[in-house]
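User: For my dataset I need records formatted as: sequence, then structure tokens, nothing else. Please produce one.
Assistant:
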Amino acid sequence: MAASSEQAHPRTVGRYVLYGELAAGGMATVHFGRLSGAVGFSRTVAIKRLHPHYAKDPEFVTMFLDEARLCGRIRHPNVVPTLDVVSTEGEIFIVMEYVAGEAFSKLLKTAGQKNQTVPPRIAATIISSVLHGLHAAHQTKDEHGRELGIVHRDVSPQNILVGSDGTSRVLDFGVAKAAGRIQSTRDGQIKGKIAYMPPEQLSGGAVSRQTDIYAASVVLWEALTGRRLFDGETEALVLVRAIEGKVDRPSEFNSAIDPATDAVVMKGLAREPGDRYATARDMALAMEQTIGLASPYEVGEWVESLASSEMGRRARSIADIESTSTMNVAANAQRTGSFPLLGDSPHSQVSSISVSRPAISGSMSPSPKAKRNARRFAAAAGLLGSAGLVLGVLALSETARTRASLPNAFFHERRGMAVLGPPSGAMKADSEAIPPLPPPTADHPPPIVKHPPPQPPPHPIAPPPKSASCDPPYTIDPTTGRKKYKMECLK
């Protein structure tokens, strides 16, 4: 697939590279992105780019950044993590983990076009995962151990991502809460989100974790029945029906739904918050015990059956982005004759393309010209190293021969340099080769010769004292009458 204009000329945002559009919504556009790190590290991410009229609202930006920091503390496999927030050139970018999958809203729409309903176990698995993610958000605490009181406020099929790995994840915590209770589309009309709000939220009352439980129950009802719970020709009619909160049992539209499943759904859709499940986890456990769950493989197969073409297009786009990054890195290396090394910053390159090694398309290899230059450089370095080694050996050999021919040679100082020369009166022919020092002048004072400090003379070794038997130092032979000196007394 040929690279698009956005892929051929991407935009660098901090340490990220922004590529083509992945999805679009009323508040933001989601793009493919690449994290460009050091030593060849790279990673595909999803970058949400807020629309300019939102990014220019100081109050909205302040609320949004605060919520983004709070939601950065959520750690759960059923929540798409917010990796980073970048603010540059008057725009706000939200960096999220890229997940290969499809929005639940598109999956429901495609299933409806094919006159299919979501199998109850698959629907229960998706919503159960969402509830576990919501419970993790509700329980999130700050660094002091206090609950942050995070409420999603915008749980809807558009904000549920079902991955090809069979795992469902919740999206857009911070954006939904900062954006307010009602999200507007590009033309300023209210659309879509009202149908998933509980009566207390629509009437301006306090929101709580039961608000998210109600919204998740609406999504479950629609998945089981294949139709909208609160629908109408106008947004005003949808609002009136949502405030009334009149709900029919799912089994009235799907005969495959049993009474136990009806009971779980209807409790989640109770008009009064106190009549709903106490926690999102309680509802998830009730669904698991009543409806049962499908395996991740079954969910992944269901996603592939409905969105294989779109997911294949995205996979090709990612492969195209990675290959484009590789070609730009290779071209830059061929032009400059260098490759990124340990510690090199990718942002120091002229091109804004990621210079990191791609994760899927394979490793990058240097051009033939760069290889030839590298071989020539290595050969020249080897010759220089060999020549230096030979010269060093010859110098050492010459020094050894000089020292051997001058056994009494010594080093004396001459204007601050040590000069090899003979002692006074020895080897006159060699000593005449050294020019005599000029007489000292004002400009050339006599050199200061540093001599080692005088050492005290060694103490003589005193002879051992003679013993008293050496007086006299001899003995007289009684036979001959001659003196015989004692050997110990002769020392």
